[in-house]
Amino acid sequence: MALTVGLRPLTRALLRPWARVPGAALGRPAAGSGDGVRCFGSPRVLVEPDPAAVGVAVMKMRNPPVNSLSLEFLTELLISLEKLENDKTFRGIIITSDCPGIFSAGLDLLEMYGRDPAHCAEYWKAVQELWLRVYLSNLVVIGAINGISPAGGCLLSLSCDYRVLANNPKYAIGLNETLLGIIAPFWFKDVLVNTIGHRAAERALQLGFLFPPSDALQVGIVDQVVPEDQVQSTARSVMAQWLAIPDHARQLTKNLVRKPTADRLLQQRDADIQNFVRFISRDSIQKSLHVYLEKLKQKKG
Ligand SMILES: CCCCC/C=C/CCC/C=C/CC(=O)SCCNC(=O)CCNC(=O)[C@H](O)C(C)(C)COP(=O)(O)OP(=O)(O)OC[C@H]1O[C@@H](n2cnc3c(N)ncnc32)[C@H](O)[C@@H]1OP(=O)(O)O
């Protein structure tokens, strides 16, 4: 089935592979700075230069209540990342959350439930694009994971160069797709296998493990677990270590390591979109999503 993807103009401009964002829509000097410091704010993505670390930006996700990755939120994240990537002031980003207790609840289930195929296709393309942008970023990307991080939230974390997780038993992380009756796509799986190895990934994916911090550290899905009030300072120290390496050498090495994984998706992006649309449109999958969404509602009592 050939799929015609009707993209809205903003999304279309953004989601071409490695498109340049037209105009300087969001880049502007920080209010009152007058010193050339740049701040790329948007309603859901707060980006500020780290006052304590030259060349480092802190990107806070602010899409309450749970930082679910809706199409609009993905688009704003993409714009901000593109701006940072193009601004030579910055060499590193710390990605964190502004929603207490939640890093990201993952993909927005409402973008996949009860939607028409064209919408699902547009949405999936944005998901692909965010992954590619973070995974292949020339910047050092550190995840300061200050909340629970299931599924798409875990993928975002796994795409960083280094992950610092707050030590709170509620802050579980993992690819739990099977618990929803859906499947982690091959590129989610590839990134997990690259991170924790084949056998651990095999178990974690099939059983939909959400690892609490101590287990997450043990299996290697995160690099460090620290007290909650030390997540930012630890991320900053780790960043300093990564920034001590000359950019060109680090970037080329990152590309060498990550490109084969990214290429697997780049070589079949359209087919991957079609697979997703076919899969998500199945009655059985829509029913599973319905049941899961109802469970989330009932949990509230
Ligand atoms: C064969 C070819 C295959 C090709 C590929 C096909 C596959 C499909 C792959 C799709 C991949 C998907 C990856 C994903 O990311 S799926 C999303 C997974 N996410 C989750 O399971 C998390 C669900 N959420 C929670 O567990 C909890 O909300 C929480 C994050 C632990 C926070 O709990 P709490 O603070 O108690 O908040 P609430 O539960 O009350 O939630 C508040 C509010 O937010 C809504 N919500 C929560 N998560 C999502 C979400 N992911 N998307 C949309 N909306 C979400 C929740 O329903 C509440 O809404 P209301 O206030 O309106 O009730």
UniProtKB/TrEMBL annotation:
GO cellular component term of the entry, any? mitochondrial matrix
A single Pfam family, by name? ECH_1
Give the pathway listed in the UniProt entry for this protein: Lipid metabolism; fatty acid beta-oxidation
What SUPFAM superfamilies does UniProt report for this protein, alphabetically? ClpP/crotonase
* Molecular function in Gene Ontology: delta(3)-delta(2)-enoyl-CoA isomerase activity
Q: What subcellular locations does the record give?
A: Mitochondrion matrix
Give the source's domain of life in one word: Eukaryota
UniProt keyword annotations, A-Z: Acetylation, Fatty acid metabolism, Isomerase, Lipid metabolism, Mitochondrion, Transit peptide
The record's listing under InterPro entries reads: ClpP/crotonase-like_dom_sf, Enoyl-CoA_hyd/isom_CS, Enoyl-CoA_hydra/iso
Q: What does this protein do?
A: Key enzyme of fatty acid beta-oxidation. Able to isomerize both 3-cis (3Z) and 3-trans (3E) double bonds into the 2-trans (2E) form in a range of enoyl-CoA species, with a preference for (3Z)-enoyl-CoAs over (3E)-enoyl-CoAs. The catalytic efficiency of this enzyme is not affected by the fatty acyl chain length.
Regarding protein family, the annotation reads: Belongs to the enoyl-CoA hydratase/isomerase family.
Q: What is this protein called?
A: Enoyl-CoA delta isomerase 1, mitochondrial
Species in which this protein is naturally found: Ursus maritimus (Polar bear)
